[in-house]
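Friendly challenge for the regulars: who can give me the structure tokens for this chain first? No prize, just bragging rights.
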Amino acid sequence: MKGRQMWRSVLLHEFPDEDIHSLQAVPGALTAASLALHPSGGSVTVTPISRFRYVLRTPLRDVIGVSCRLKLRYPFQGPAEPEPLIRLGTFVRLSVQPTASDQMLVRVKIAGTELRLALPVYPFPQFALLRFDWHTSGQVSVSVDGQLIGYHNALSASARFAVDDLSVGRGDPDQSLTYQRYEIGRLLVRVLTRSDALGTLARELPAIDVPDGDMYRRCRMRIMVDLQRKLDRLRNFMTAINQTLTYPWPDDAGPTERPSFPEVTRVHDLATTAVAALWRMLRSADFTNSDDFLAPFTQLLEILQRTRPDEFRQLIQELTQTPTVPRECREIVEGALEQGRHAFGPLLTLLAQADERITEIAERD
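First reply, four minutes later:
Bragging rights claimed.
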């Protein structure tokens, strides 16, 4: 996302020296077995009896997106068995396996559902960048050196899970196997959690004095829970949009050429542009150029309405008919906003203009 990154980096390791601890990560620790790994020349060798594992001090809850990049050299020594590459907790698996037809089978498993892709690459004599991205909308993509090799639009849609550790290598080291399996030269793992969007927005809002008391804290909690519920409903709608505008690839019944999905790209670009403009306004407290947000936001709404008109109308009705601020909390919220009128006034005006456009587009035939 331009201007503000909602995804959080869990771990980055580029093996810059011989110390396996030379990494950047959220608080946690390497396991004792990981200390047996000895990086050299910007990479580390993973064998059937070694494994890299990092345990998070605090598990990440409600993960709804995963992005992994692995710089890999795979010599395919030994028998053609499935080889685990990346594991996140108990819900995410990335593995590879050579096949009898001189291909490599890439397997991505998310929350119990697996996507299998055959790569006409055997082996990787030089390092290649293997990447996969998954989102709770059901979208998962796999690429090698920037080239898409597979995409699915309905893999474990609406799933969310916890991540308490990440590892590279076999979960059950086999002492009877001594051959080299593969080398990794870079490992990057990022995730998106269910609360990241609201958390990012809350940090960008103007700072104002708020009441200190149990009632205020209860109201704040109720409002955040309701907003989170509405975001979940919006994500479900966007899942339907993505499944309408895309298709799995490769697929025996579909096109053979690599897909481009221009309408989905347009939706993503418009959303990114609108949010980036909103962040700029919030950070600068300058809402003069409101069209920087309203123009792409309106174009985005028009695509969504055109793609799923009935569902779009129903979504807007659901979101607007249920008040975000409970009746018993209105006095507290209105009092806080009145105190922060100077700071919040331009933002509320912008949101009112956005609401008018939402209503107008939702009422179109």
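DSSP finds seven helices and 14 strands in the chain. The helical segments are 196-204, 214-245, 262-284, 291-307, 309-321, 330-339, 341-362. Your move, everyone else.
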